[in-house]
Amino acid sequence: MSEQMLIEVIKVVGLIVAAGVPSVAALVINRSRQKKEKLQNELKLALNDIRFLLSVEAEHGRKWQEETGASNLKLVRKTVHAAEHLNWSGKNSLHRVIKKLSELE
Description:
Oligomer: single chain
Shape: rod-shaped
Strand content: under 5%
Radius of gyration: 29 Å
């Protein structure tokens, strides 16, 4: 292969690499952005579900309070803990969930 041919092949390879690097970088950045948006949407959905369930629990407690004079929320939580081995961290109170949702908007 002649020296001139080798120089031309190197130029072509250089052009291909020069065009490919920004494309690959853009692809990686775009995928990262899409994953972040997907995770944020899933977080919003989960926080809205928590908000709904806390509202259901509060309404249930009000009904118990009207009928029996006690809300029994702590009793119900203890029962769930005993039966399902689940714990309430308290870190996702209704106020905190609403605050997190407003921060995500």
